[in-house]
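Protocol step 4 of 6.
Sequence for Putative kin of IRRE-like protein 1-like (Stichopus japonicus) entered exactly as in the expression construct, tag removed. Do not edit the line below.
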Amino acid sequence: MDLMNINLMRNFCEVSLLVLLLPLVRESYSVETVREVVEINTSACFECIVAEVDFTTWSFLRRGQSSGGSIIVQRDQPNDKQKYTVTTITNPDNTVTMTLEVISADEETEGQYSCQEQGNDIVIGNLIVEIPPQLMLKKDGVKLNESIDVVFTEEVQIQCVAAEGKPSVSLSWQVNGEEKTAGVTTDMSREDERIISSMINYIPNKDDETLSCITSGQEVIPSEQATVSINVMYAPSCNILVTSETSNQFRVICACDANPVVSGYKIWVNNSLYREAMEVFLPSTDPAIVSCSASNDVGTDTSEEMKLEPFHVDQPPSTTRVALIVAIPAVVIVLAIAVVLVVVCKKVRRAEKSKEETEKSLQ
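Step 5 output, structure tokens:
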């Protein structure tokens, strides 16, 4: 064999080897890894650009498995059309974009999806499925519904349980929409049980209206919350109100703030029970020390004492006073008339005298 033929054969072998290795070199740097996170029972999609659809397959390796994946798509035909669909679009450079759709993602379809052309990985897609937790509030082990009765300043334990969520969530508390951290403890259960609980030792204030447990920590599922309305009950807080209703009576009222409403009132006069009522009328002519008490289902409160001073307003006038009231204006009127008459008479006399003097001077 001459030297020229030997060189030709060598070049042919090098070119052939290069052609055979090109796909391997291409795949060594073109493998794309993608991550898709979706909520359970929603769809998920992976795209793969290939040269030939006929030499393409999709395989699936379930989460938690290290080997034993199965082919789910050959060419553009899924093996299970209830779970997957495949669409293809030819690009301007004659490559083909294949889209694999997981119709309804769940834990059975969660895992790794590989797009392979001629046995070489082009795209490796990791599907992660999130599951919203079942959130509930409990008191003494009993699930709470829309509202809860609590007593002002009396501590109560409320438990928040988030079950079946994936991944596990974090829990926080809010009172009236503002974060509450005091008295909160968290119990994290095992990951495989997917249960997390949080306990709050809650001390109610009178203006509290809502108590909420909030979830966080999931990527595509928004925060959820469980909320109960708070009915804060408290014993009466009472004060004495006094008005002068007539000229000879005090109107005494026992005014109380309470929840639930007051079930019974008592009014005390000079440290003795006067009447079981919310208001009474007392003589305004006599001094007295008054207070009141009120009760409801929570407790009883007694107001501070108030001292009532006697007074006489709009007292009916006596006969003498009537005579004086009538006589004094009459005297004033008479005196005024007399003064006017005196002044007029003086002016008349002065005029007459002036006239006489004038007549004498003319004679």
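Step 6, annotate. The two ends are 193 Å apart (CA to CA).
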